[in-house]
Design goal:
The complex is a heterodimer. By secondary structure, chain A is an alpha+beta fold. Helix content of chain A is 29%, strand content 18%. The longest helix of chain A has 14 residues. In chain B, strand 10 and strand 11 form a beta hairpin. Classes of the chains: A alpha+beta, B alpha+beta.
Chain lengths: 196, 716
């Protein structure tokens, strides 16, 4: 009941007050990462932030990490001072839910190069950003405004090498770093449902 | 060298991972079984056999439709067919809509048979053929697994086609494939202006023959897949009537322009119809500029339109064309103020009746014009020179009356004392005011009114009448309210000698109206309009003789009246008939575009072909539809279009500017106005250079900011 209420509240907030919009300030949130650390989006102001709706049981996400493409991109972007936040909004009853220990294990096993993995089992951040699928990515410019919202790349496949695709995150970050306007600001996210 | 090696190793690793991944996926495919069914065991060369790919899913698991929805992936079939056998497109049975609402997917649970027609070439020789397909799908329960399976079946090419035992199953599944229906009309309408990435879309379906209406309780639309936008799952504002269905669904745009056409499946209970329908922009008439901060709520209901009509009528009171009548009304109120409440109330109602009856007459005119097969527009009577001459004369008479040159004695008997005028403002006067207000109001459109009238002119007669009455009610509302609460009139000074002076002062706005009407008439009569002025002098003289000697005189009243009539007739015959040829103006037709084109040479005459040509050449285009009788248009032009900043901007962006003159109601412009759901001018359109993009429709009342913003938008 409490959870339903929280979801409803989050949903209302997401659709009314904080609807994410390109060029508008990305809504702030505070979460806890899998190491118990508090993560606040506004703490990263001045840096480019990538937010990824994450669930490695989803074949589309899995393929990004299993192929190593995601980790490569994360490492590459981290070198340029970009923050990458994974948001896992899978509810606790779903078979894909990860306990803290499982999540820490997965972080090590997959050699994830992100800044943090935020535990969002209540779906607060997911609903706030209207995350529709895993993976669904957001790029926030250094000024705190949303610069990209959509799919990871133009290859909605659970198999094959994601490196052969056009990666929208890389493109957006490169353009932001070059001080150019982002060409592709929105695409249709693909993947599995988030399992809120 | 080392670098090459790492690359090679990495590639190998990736490949291994890939193979491993595929292997696990296929191994995990135990949740879904795949099987190939054929409608015939033996078939004749040249026939078409129906194949069915049957997916049987374990409880709780599902696979996806051709549009998976917000998540998921459509099932794919890769055929491995011998030469001479060609597979057609997959026919997808109607899927189920699976929750949750925010990530709705279209999927199949338990079992589905995807149907594919296989065409057998007539050159095939008898004997067995092996038909195989590699089927890959995404199966999901509370997590998703990509899986694939091979399915095959054999077919004998023989002397004739014999149905197999599976034919009945395939037939049953084929009954679930949406059909292409032609028994109803479908269209979709945007309910909000383009702005942001979310927009409600209204689906409208009607059955021309009421008997054909299916009996259903739910209606929905499952869209075809698209990368650039998504018609979401939510269904609201469902209207189910005997021969009409309406419902609204939110649309989310990801990239590019808003779609101009949508396709998908209309679902009425468990019946499904394949549809493709154009999307029109109902909201185009809502100001796209800064006034867009108050867009109308999504559902376009009759009630909402009636409300718009009412508000539009209300605003008409302060538009320049009706202002002179306000002066008359103020005078009326002052003189009524000392009367008892019942009398004031009665006059308020009579004024309202005058307005409403005039609107009924206008509605009748519009309906008859439409029935005669012509295009009707708001204020179209101002395109008629004969109407203009009558109205100019009438307004001149009103001014003369206010100046006290003659009295109006419709109530019978003469008025000897000025005081009588105040005590007996008369029902006839109030009624006349109502008519005059309406007539003068019609060449104007006001905010809200454009939307309402655009809607009204496309509606059946009964709704048109209703809409017109709503505008009339709005126009009359302030006075009606005041007369119903005479206590509110306390602030007005007591009647007295000052009233006579005030009345005369109010004659001057009326004279201004006459000048305006003359300028409109000049577009029909050209320079000859001076003879209309001469006629008005005759009229004024006649009225003076009539007032001074027939109404107020002591002797020979009858002779005075005859002299007055004589002067009037002289004026009519000499000025109107012989000089002006008022019933057959010589300068007429489509002339008049020159006088709206501006001196800086930027503006050319509008034609649909000219606009298309300019757009094809890749230039932004601005179109300003105006009419000589449209005061709002003139004000717009002077304050916001024909100004240096806008002219410079137009030159800077290489825009092509067109002026469409609606003074004489050319059908081509009426059609164009109707396309943007307008019934009259002003209408200003700004087209982006991108030929696929729709134009920005500017609001009725412009500011330089609105125009500049639109020009900035189209050059982005």
């Amino acid at each position: 009941m409490k959870k339903t209420f929280a979801l409803l509240a989050a949903l209302t907030l997401a659709t009314s007050l904080f609807a994410v919009e390109i060029g508008k300030p990305a809504p702030d949130f505070t979460g806890t990462d899998i190491n118990g650390k508090t993560v606040k989006l506004s703490d990263y102001k001045g840096k480019i932030v990538v937010i990824e709706s994450y669930n490695s049981d989803c074949p589309f996400c899995h393929n990004q990490y299993n192929s190593g493409a995601a980790q490569e991109l994360q490492k590459d972007l981290a070198g340029k001072g970009v923050v990458w936040l994974l948001v896992n909004s899978v509810n606790v009853k779903n078979s894909s839910h990860r306990t803290t220990a499982q999540a820490q294990q997965e972080w090590t096993d997959l050699k994830i190069n992100a800044t943090a993995w935020i535990d969002d089992t209540a779906g607060t951040i997911g609903y706030l950003y209207d995350m529709r699928t895993t993976p669904h990515v957001f790029v926030i410019a250094a000024d705190g405004n949303l610069a990209y919202n959509g799919a990871m790349d133009n290859r909605p496949e659970p198999f094959g090498d994601p490196r052969t695709a056009k990666n929208y995150v890389r493109a957006a970050v490169d353009e932001l770093l070059a001080g150019k306007p982002v060409t592709i600001t929105q695409t249709k996210p693909y993947g599995c449902s988030v399992h809120y | 060298m080392g670098e090459h090696l790492t690359l090679l190793v990495r590639k190998l690793l990736t490949l291994t991972a890939l193979v491993f991944c595929l292997a696990t996926a296929v191994a995990q495919a135990a949740n879904t079984q795949v099987q190939l069914l054929l409608s015939a065991g033996t078939a004749k060369a040249g026939d078409t056999v129906l194949a069915g790919v049957r997916l049987t899913m374990a409880p709780g698991w599902h696979t996806y439709w051709k549009n998976p929805g917000a998540a998921g992936k459509a099932t794919e079939i890769k055929w491995q067919l011998p030469p001479g056998v060609t597979a057609g497109d997959i026919q997808w049975p109607l899927p189920k809509k699976l929750p949750p609402l925010e990530v709705t997917t279209y999927a199949y649970e338990e079992e589905v048979v995807l149907l594919v027609p296989l065409k057998l070439d007539s050159s095939l020789s008898p004997g067995p053929l092996n038909l195989a397909a590699k089927v890959s799908w995404l199966e999901c329960k509370d997590s998703c697994i990509p899986a694939a399976g091979d399915a095959q079946a054999s077919l004998d090419i023989g002397p004739e086609t014999k149905a197999s035992s599976d034919a009945i199953t395939l037939e049953a599944w084929q009954a679930k494939v949406p059909v292409t229906a032609k028994t109803f009309n479908a269209q979709a309408l945007w309910q909000k202006p383009a702005g942001g990435d979310d927009r409600p879309l209204l689906f409208e379906l009607d059955w021309p023959a009421p008997g054909d209406t299916p009996t259903h309780t739910t209606a929905d639309f499952f869209p075809a897949a698209s990368d650039s936008f998504e018609i979401e799952a939510d269904v609201t504002n469902v209207l189910n009537s005997a021969n009409e269905i309406e419902f609204t669904k939110p649309v989310k745009k990801f990239s590019g322009d808003w779609p101009k056409e949508v396709s998908g499946v209309l679902v009425l209970d468990d019946k499904a119809y394949e549809l493709e329908m154009p999307v029109t922009d109902m909201s185009a008439v809502v100001p796209g500029g800064t006034i867009a901060a108050t867009p109308p709520p999504p559902p376009v209901s009759l009630w909402q339109m009636l409300l718009y009509a009412f508000i539009g009528g209300l605003i008409l009171n302060i538009m320049p064309c009706v202002l002179p009548v306000i002066a008359l009304k103020i005078l009326g109120f002052v003189s009524e103020a000392k009367n008892n409440a019942a009398h004031v109330r009665k006059l308020g109602l009579i004024y309202t009746a005058g307005v409403l009856l005039s609107f009924l007459a206008l509605a009748a005119l519009v309906i008859s014009v439409k029935l005669a097969g012509h295009k009707a527009g708001w204020g179209m009577q101002f395109g008629s020179p004969i109407f203009l001459v009558c109205l100019t004369t009438l307004v001149t008479l009103v001014a003369l009356n206010l100046f006290g040159v003659f009295e109006v004695t419709l109530g019978g008997g003469t008025l000897d004392k000025a005081g009588d005028l105040a005590s007996r403002p008369g029902a006839a006067g109030a009624f006349f005011n109502g008519i005059l207000a309406t007539i003068l109001a019609t060449p104007c459109t006001a905010p809200f009114l454009g939307v309402a009238l655009g809607f009204a002119f496309t509606q059946p007669s009964s709704i048109l009448v209703l809409m017109f009455l709503a505008v009339g009610t709005g126009l009359a509302a302030p006075y009606l309210l005041l007369s119903l609460n005479p206590a509110w009139l306390k602030f007005l000074p007591k009647p007295g000698v000052w009233m006579e002076k005030f009345k005369i002062a109010m004659g001057f706005p009326m004279l201004a109206t006459v000048v305006w009407l003359l300028s409109i008439a000049s577009s029909s009569y050209g320079k000859n309009v001076v003879w209309l002025g001469v006629f008005l002098v005759f009229v004024a003289t006649a009225m003076w003789v009539f007032g001074e000697f027939a109404q107020r005189g002591r002797k020979n009243k009858g002779i005075a009246a005859l002299v007055a009539l004589g002067i009037f007739i002289c004026g009519y015959v000499f000025a109107l008939e012989n000089q002006l040829h008022w019933r057959k103006p010589e300068v007429s037709g489509e002339a008049g575009i020159e006088n709206t084109a501006t001196s800086n040479g930027l503006w050319a005459a509008w034609s649909p072909e000219a606009v298309t040509a300019a757009r094809v050449s890749g230039k932004p285009v601005i179109v300003d539809f105006t009419a000589d009788w449209c005061l709002t248009c003139r004000v717009n032009k002077q304050t916001s279009i024909d100004i240096d900043s806008v002219s410079n901007k137009l030159k800077a962006i290489g825009a092509v500017a067109f002026n469409g003159d609606y003074t004489h109601f050319p059908d081509s412009i009426t059609a164009e106005l109707n396309r943007y759901n307008r019934a009259g001018v002003p209408l200003v359109l700004v087209y982006p250079a991108d030929t696929n993009a729709p134009p920005i429709v500017l609001p009725e009342v412009l500011t330089p900011g609105i125009v500049m913003e639109a020009l900035n938008k189209v050059t982005k």
